[in-house]
Design brief:
Layout: H1 2-22, H2 26-37, E1 45-54, E2 57-67, E3 70-74, E4 82-84, E5 91-95, E6 101-105, H3 107-117
Antiparallel strand pairs: 1-2, 2-3, 4-5, 5-6
Length: 127
C-alpha cells in the first residue's frame, strides 16, 4: 500500500504544480483534454471525467491513463489556497487569503477509493 500511496501523492503533487504553473481557464483545459483523449496514438488510453459505480451510487474519477506500464488514476484539485491536512484525515481544509475556509475530501483517500471502484475489465491491453 505504501507504493500506491506514494504514487498517488506524487501524481497529486505533479498535477497540482502543473495547475498552479499554468493558470489555464477551465474551458481551455477541457478542450485540450478532449484533443489529447481523441488523438490517434494507440499506445495508451486516457479517460477524463470517468463516471463509475461505487457504494454510494456513482463517483467521478478526474483522469485515468491506461498504458503498457500500468493504470494511473489521477485526482485533480485546483485551489488558490493553503491546504491543510494529513494522510489519514477524512477531510482537508483549504484556507484562502481572505481567511475563508473550505473543507474537502482527503484526495489521497478519495483516490484510493477511485482505484478500488475501477471496472475490473479495465486493462492495459487493447480490445
Amino acid at each position: 500500500m505504501s507504493n500506491v500511496l506514494a504514487a498517488t501523492l506524487g501524481a497529486f503533487l505533479v498535477i497540482a504544480l502543473q495547475l498552479i504553473a499554468r493558470a489555464i481557464s477551465p474551458s481551455a483545459h477541457r478542450a485540450k483534454a478532449w484533443r489529447q483523449t481523441h488523438r490517434r496514438d494507440d499506445s495508451f488510453r486516457r479517460y477524463v471525467g470517468l463516471i463509475v459505480p461505487d457504494d454510494n451510487g456513482t463517483t467521478e474519477i478526474d483522469e485515468v491513463l491506461v498504458t503498457p506500464a500500468g493504470v494511473f488514476v489521477v485526482e485533480k484539485k485546483d485551489f488558490g489556497a493553503w491546504i491543510y491536512g494529513a494522510e489519514g484525515d477524512e477531510n482537508w481544509t483549504a484556507v484562502y487569503a481572505n481567511r475563508e475556509k473550505h473543507r474537502f475530501q482527503n484526495p489521497i483517500r478519495q483516490n484510493y477509493r477511485h482505484v478500488n471502484d475501477l471496472p475490473p475489465d479495465l486493462s492495459t491491453t487493447r480490445s
